[in-house]
Amino acid sequence: MPRVLPDSPDPFYYLANFERALGWLAARCADLFDESEARFAQRFGALPRASRALFVRMLMRKGPHFRASRLDYAEIGCPRAAAAALVAEGWLDAAPTLALDALAPLVTKAELQALAVTLDIATDARAACTSTRTAALAALEQAVPPPRDWHAWFPDSADTVFHLAAAPLCERLRLMFFGNLRQDWSEFVLADLGIYRYESVPFDEASRAFHHRRDIDTWLALRDCRERIETDPETIAVALDTLDALAPRTADNAWLRARHDRARHAAGQAAERAREPELAWRAYLECGHPEARYRRVRVLEQLGRRDEAVALAEAIAAAPVNEEEAQRAARTLGRLQRQRGSRATQDAAAAQVGAVAELTLPGAKADLRVEEATRLALATDEAPVFYVENTLINSLFGLLCWPALFAPLPGAFFHPFQRGPADLHAADFVARRADRFATCLAELETRAYRATIERRYVEKHGIQSPFVAWPALSAGLLSVALDCFPAAHLRLWFERLLRDPTANRSGLPDLVRFWPAERRYELIEVKGPGDRLQDNQRRWLAYCAAHAMPVTVLQVRWAPAPLALDATAP
């Protein structure tokens, strides 16, 4: 499919991109359309080009209300003329009723002041209007003027306000295309400009986010429920009723079920913050979120059901879903069994993180982070040090396992603008690709891995990936890392990433020091004054230490500033 670039002679590139998306949807998702969406897909292309272009320009701007005087595009011409066909279709309203909160973003401070005079607002309020825009708006709000159209607000204005009535319809189309509402139509432009590049994955008829119209309605209902939970904690009980009603509609769609579990988990967390343990228990009880089982232990504690909390914590410790759950369960059992403060437990926890060292640096500099100051202090010509944190090891994994990560499996890729597979957070993500990951990791045994990683670094450079951090990865760093990291250590790191790709992508040490001449390395976790190891960092450090990898926790202190001498002192 040819692309129209923004720097090409055609100024309607954005329209071409939108119509490309609309054609994609019409070809692949027509069975999901309701009557209004089907009519839009059928009728849009028949409108004059200027009308279509104006619609897309408005769709890509913050709305839904627009002043005609601010829709100034050379390729479109008169916005009122272009709007006529859109108004006739009902996709644009040329005389919307505007409440004050809808009017406010459209007007200037001077217009607000003029409005106060027109509405004959009290003198003291009118005086407030002369100070700041905020004060002017506050004065108008006190008067509580009723909603009206633009010309009723400003009878002498030659301007017009449009309301993009089709915005909700297009939001549903956007959801069908992307499978989310985080991405918008600008993705086409960013891709065409080369700012974002995406892996090309083949699609079939099953490669779409939604399979039934009710799936779209369920997604939006879950979104609305989640937003209510976050904005109004008093609605938790009502939200849980809604989630209970939605649960059957997600049973045959693992992707939607995962969203449902995240919404229940959010409800449980909100209930805990509101100190409503009964509601939190209800939220977590039927929740498949990875953290829900451990949260049930905490809620049982809050409810005073200590024996049940101990029993559940013991069950988790015996068969944890992942390392994070095992770590939390062990800590909770220690507390519940009054063993948390024992010296043996503290010594064991300290031993797990590997070597511990101290470093004193010159006085702190406001513009220099402690990690960078440490890197500069440690680096030598013979042993360069890089700040890599969660970038280097993840990137090596992402490059070696690229074919497995971008395998065109059902439910993984819905559209051409995905950074990674949609099921990355699913419990069966690795299991579905087990053979592919095994093939990739087998190269570590034949030593073919280096050529593969270096080739993919060139071939895939800049293409979006959930694991490869391109800005942090240079050819020089890649080369020295492959020189100094043993293949056996790469395999161990990659295997741990595969145990829990979501959780284990973070917590890796801050720095890596290489000795290229000796082909060895050291991972260094930097902790400044008052900074403590996080749980995910402890898990990585313990794993590395258990496999005899060179890893150090470096406790960094700033040297005290020298005392200033008083020249006038005797």
Query: What overall geometry do the principal axes of the alpha carbons give?
Result: globular
| Strands ordered across the widest β-sheet | 3-7-6-5-4
Task: Provide the β-strand percentage band.
Answer: 5-15%
Give the end-to-end Cα distance, rounded to a whole number of Å: 85 Å
Q: Number of helical runs?
A: 28
User: Into how many domains do the coordinates divide?
Assistant: 3
- Overall pLDDT score: 88
CA-atom Rg in angstroms: 30 Å
Helix amount, in percent?
40-55%
SS-based structural class? Answer: alpha/beta
- Give unreliable regions as ranges: 1-6, 339-351
Biggest sheet, in brief?
Answer: 5 strands, mixed
The counted number of beta strands is: 7
Structure description:
It contains 28 helices and 7 strands. It has 570 residues and is α/β, with parallel strands linked by helices. Helix 28 (535-546) links the parallel strand 6 (520-527) and strand 7 (551-558). The chain folds into 3 domains: 13-178, no CATH class; 208-349, Serine Threonine Protein Phosphatase 5, Tetratricopeptide repeat; 353-558, no CATH class. It has a 5-stranded mixed sheet, sandwiched between helices.
Write the layout of secondary structure elements.
Layout: H1 13-28, H2 35-43, H3 49-59, E1 65-67, H4 79-89, H5 100-103, H6 109-118, H7 123-129, H8 133-143, H9 150-153, E2 161-163, H10 167-178, H11 186-193, H12 213-231, H13 236-246, H14 254-273, H15 277-285, H16 292-302, H17 306-318, H18 323-336, H19 343-352, E3 355-361, H20 370-378, E4 385-387, H21 392-400, H22 402-405, H23 429-432, H24 434-446, H25 449-459, H26 475-484, H27 487-499, E5 511-515, E6 520-527, H28 535-546, E7 551-558
Parallel strand pairs: 3-7, 6-7
Antiparallel strand pairs: 1-2, 4-5, 5-6
Helix pairs in contact: 3-4, 6-8, 7-8, 12-13, 12-14, 13-14, 14-15, 15-16, 16-17, 17-18, 21-27
